[in-house]
Amino acid sequence: MEEVTYTVKPLPRGTRIGPYTILRQVPGGIGGMAIVYEARMGNRGPSIALKVAHAGLGGFLKDETAFLRVLDLDHPNIIKILPTPLGNTSDYIVKDPETGCWYFAMEYMAGGSLEDWLQRHKRFTLMEAVDVVRQIGAALDAAHGAGIVHLDVKPSNILFHTRPEKKPRRAVLTDFGIARPCGRIASGQTLTVEYASPEQVKLASGEHLAVGPASDLYSLAVIFYEMLSGRLPFQAQNDLAMMHQIVYDVPPLPVPLAPLALNPIMQRALAKEPEQRYPSAEALVADLEALPREAYESSSIRHGIHPLLSLGLGILVGLGLGVPVGHYLVPSPEKTPLPIIRTVIVTVTPTPTREVVATDTPAVTPTSAAVEPTRRPTSTPVPPTPTFTPRPRSIFTPTMTPSK
Known about the structure:
By secondary structure, the protein is an alpha+beta fold. It has two domains: 4-107, Phosphorylase Kinase, domain 1; 114-296, Transferase(Phosphotransferase) domain 1 (Transferase(Phosphotransferase), domain 1), CATH 1.10.510.10. It has nine helices and 17 strands. The chain has helices at residues 58-70, 114-121, 126-145, 198-204, 213-229, 239-248, 263-269, 281-289, 293-329, and strands at residues 4-8, 16-17, 20-30, 34-41, 44-53, 81-82, 84-86, 89-91, 94-95, 102-107, 148-149, 158-160, 171-173, 180-181, 191-192, 356-360, 395-396. Strands 2, 3, 4, 5, 6, 9 and 10 form a seven-stranded antiparallel β-sheet that branches. Strands 1-16 form a two-stranded antiparallel sheet. A hairpin with a 3-residue loop joins strand 3 (20-30) and strand 4 (34-41). Helix 3 (126-145) runs antiparallel to helix 5. The radius of gyration is 24 Å and the shape is globular. Mean pLDDT is 77; it is low at 1-6, 305-311, 323-390 and 398-404.
């Protein structure tokens, strides 16, 4: 198929899209199909997240809103889409007559994403991790009950209503952009390699097999592993090597820094064959909640000791270096004083925002080592967070044909 390139020009602050006024582009909100903005109705009222499709890709937004409307719009753990008022009527997916853009509105999640949290804090306690799995699992069970497979369960698609450290925390699942009805999943799907199930990898490789709800539950188990240990179960130098590990290698257990009692649960949750995994997220959570109290207590203790050990080592190293360094820095009467070292403050001017190009890339298979999977930023609304160096996420994107 011929490669199609779409030029993406983010809308500036103050642009009107239907009844909404753009406030800013949400950090990390540029995706392969749309851009997410923070906006308001007119110039007042609470913030909402506005998802605006790239030119020619409105069909993907129509699919996403259709899936979200099939689901229970009041489910507390699924992102809520909001009707857009249009005079005497309202609709969930709208084409703006001025810009020609398709868009829809969602609730704005001010707490950031799970990916943000993992970048800053690395790990959750067992109790915290189970709480997130319980909520996102409930969202997945609802979607699967409605006959929909999400296909892109990953930390950047899990958002929090408020900061995760605040309790009670509310987590929601978002971005149903590549979701599909059960039994209608074909090759050519976008693939986030780190969280892909073995059957997703095989499908992307050209094999003909079913990909169903068990695929989403595998991805949730990978996220659970990462929340507890601060690392992914599989580590590889490139995407093709990781795809091979996902299909053939046994997940490394026990989970680093996690209770040993968790081993049989993780073994089942990360099984290679879909039928060997848990039948639902509810069943997975039931086993997690049945763990002995000692498992939860030991996880909390380990989580607290880890930073304390790091602090203690830092103090010891500082004391160890302080004596010799001080010896050389203090001038001696018999020696010539050391030159004064001056601190220079350098001001770095941010690089202007460049035009972003979203490209539909040709199909790639794991046997083709000459082609690397492309990387796609998340298209979910992510509120501003403290500056950090983002961890790379690998995206395997075969050719996609926009829906009509």
